[in-house]
Amino acid sequence: MKPNQQTEDVKTDPTEFSSTIIRIAVSQICRSVGFKAIQFSALELLTDLATRHLRSIGRSAVSSANASNRTQPNVFDLVNAFNDLNSVMGFQGACNLHKDYDPLLSSGAFADLVRFVQCSHEIPFARPISHLSSSDSSVPVVPCNIIQRESGSCPGHIPRWLPDLPDSSTFERSHEDLEDRLKRRKYELWGDAVSPEANDDFSTMDAGERRVQTKNGKQMGKLKFKIARVKNGLNGTRWKELASNVAIDDNTGCTSDSENGSPLFGLMSENGNWKREFGIIYRHL
Amino acid sequence: MNYHQHHQQQQQQQQQSSGEGKHDDDAAITEFLASLMEYTPTIPDELVEHYLGKSGFQCPDVRLIRLVAVATQKFVAEVASDALQHCKARQASVVKDKRDKQQKDKRLILTMDDLSKALREYGVNVKHQEYFADSPSTGLDPATREE
Question: Which residues form the Bromodomain associated domain (chain A) (predicted)?
Fold first, then answer.
């Protein structure tokens, strides 16, 4: 028997993957009860129910363990959780649960479970499962190595119930340079990215094709600039404060020194687009 | 192991003379947990661990994981068997000519109607919204409409 719309592709999303597996298991259980087919919406409903049932058992077991000062639930917590869940339908012996002389493990819910295991046939899962934690999943998985923790390989000051530290390769500095690492991740330093050629506001190429180079002819390394302010200048013109201490070194030999005004002055007087006042370069809007 | 520690505490607290009963229960529990290792639940262990991990349940003991898996399997089986009884009751009540009844017996389909009736006793409310249909026969006989 197959449900009417069963998907065959393996989904890489962990939630879809696990719900698909539960769907197969639920359809197997329904088949063993006696059904020949199932509506897809009913199957989705039962899958969701089974998931919620699992999680609510876990949640109530954990809460009763935490209430008893423990971090790991044991069988008594689980039996308590069963009793809580089955109290809706009711089970035999529910009235005697919390009396002193009746031990917890003789509750009717648990006895029903024992009887179920003994009487029902085994239904192994139908399909082979690939390893659940795939490396290309987009959801980060919290590493959980309880067994390794208990064997004492981790330092003793960390409590057992905390998740593991991330892999040491994520925080240990490797031998590569900072820039190499950034290049590997396709980032670049911000000073490299904000070049005068990239942004028109800060461009000096407005006056012509002047390449921005350093004194030695290499590409520009870093820029310092201020936020542009619009200022009303003489003759009603408006000037936009461009930058201070701009390192310009073009073919005409301008320097980046703001005190040395004459080359820049020469630059500005060429086309009238630039103005230099009190060490700040303005560009005509 | 936590089980044994709690067991000792429980023994110290209860001073009744029903110690033999407790020993029987403990022996039964131990046997049951051992038998769980031979019984393979339908829901795989990894999946149960995944969902229990989402609720904060961390336990290295496999038997407890199997216990939870078996409990969920029992729950789903109970719901399904209740729905089966509803379905059979519906088929018994619908009295048509013999040919139709035999056809329905062979095709037992778990529908949303039966499931919602079965789940109502478990406190899960799955009711479809009422709607106005074109003809009176719409939605009456879901066994002949396979979706």
Answer: 15-91
Q: What is the largest CA-CA distance in chain B?
A: 71
Span A176-197, pLDDT tens digits: 666 676 676 666 666 666 555 5
Whether the predicted model's global pTM rises above the 0.90 cut: no
Q: Which tens digit of pLDDT belongs to each residue from B8-33?
A: 655 555 444 445 556 666 777 777 77
Kindly report the nearest CA distance between residue A248 and chain B, in angstroms.
58
Of B28, B60, B67, the CB nearest to A78: B67
How is domain A14-124 classified at the architecture level of CATH? Orthogonal Bundle (1.10)
Contact between A57 and B68 using a beta-carbon 8 Å cutoff: yes
Q: Does B46 touch chain A (CB under 8 A)?
A: yes
* A143 contacts: CB under 8 Å, gap ≥ 6: A163, A164, A166, A167
Residue ranges of B 85-124 with Cβ closer than 8 A to chain A: 106-112, 115, 119, 121-124
